[in-house]
Amino acid sequence: MTVDVDDPQGEGPAEAAGRVPEGNLALPQPLAAPLPESSGGGVADDVPLRSIVLLVAATFGAGMAMIVPMAYSLAVRLDQLAPGRTEALGIVLAVGSAATLVLAPLTGILSDRLRSRWGRRRPFTVIGLLIGAVSVPVMALAPNLSVLTIGWTLSTVGWGTAAASLGNWQADRLPPHQRGRVSGLTGVTMQVAPVVGIILVGLFRDQVLVVFALPAAIGVVLVIAFLAVVRDPDSMGMVIERRLTVGGLLRSYGFDPRTAPDFAWNWLGRFIFFSGLTLTTSFTVFFVAQRLELRVPDVAGVLAIVSASSIVTATVGSLGGGWLSDRVGRRKPFILAGAVLFAAGCSVSAFAHDLPTLMVGTLLNSLGIATFSAVAQALLLDVLPDREREAGRYMAIALFAQKIPGVFAPVLGGAVLAIGVGAENFTALYLLAAALAFAGGLLISLSVRSVR
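RE: above sequence
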């Protein structure tokens, strides 16, 4: 397999290889033409049910492997290595997210241009699996915070690459009328996967290696099943008339919002929403431990109960929102509704000091996240620029909206928790998250023009 990254003799006019969208800063050396369907480019006919089922299963596995450490396992290991240092979790998570900011666009761009008999996306999925598997013993056996940070960085880069490749496959293959439904299915799996993962690892909460290894093992099995059965067409015949220069590669990390305003507004709204979401998810274990006066390892049982209860709301939000948005041909009302529900859940949680109130807040959060995520993902596919040539690149840029908050939000959250005197100020943290989430949904609903 080959990826062209050599410096060309010269850029030449874009017209020589098919017109580039005006203002595209990323690839001054574009592909010659959209790939034929047999080569993995363009949007094919309806994706068959078997492929969708395997895609959903693979997304479930990758989501479990990627989110369970962030939601539970890292906090448990951190409590062993540095008891009482809640803010250190924010630093560990931020470093991992920073690494994905650098690598996610690179892998997306290179996969767009990859020529291999195994297709454009599959090799990067395999690479991600291998890196994710290597991270398990590093995190589980880390003797200090530095090694734990290295392990988490490997984990988030590896599983992030695998998950992004699955997303790129969707961008390549799904026709418009399947995007809402499939986004709903994959969205609900991303909600359910960490719930199932936490329930499973809660059975082994005193066995650190199992707590890290079990979600990863499930992820490896399910993603391999997808790779073994679902076809990623041979891209050896793909013609690239302009090689990618180093300068072009660096420029590809950005885009001109004036040439793709709806993509830009959707990106900004998602960025604001996920900033609020990341504030809460980064410290969930410590939040529950404080409000219910529990030891950190004992939070797994409570999280399992609360999270299991949210499976229904996550399913309703993802499948209902995705299906209805396809059915009625509207995305923005569901996105705003999801943001409002999540903000309401955060407001309830901000003042919760008992399990029933925590469950109400969590259920509202789950319904809101699921509705917003599923429909916002479908809207992203609707407004994706230059789909035939650069789907991987723009999907990677879209991922920035989730990854950049992962860099600064945990650090910001640590600072917000320090406001006041005494115990961590989770009330302020959750109210800030509510405000950001609502603002993000409102921005998308008011600013995106080409999609209703």
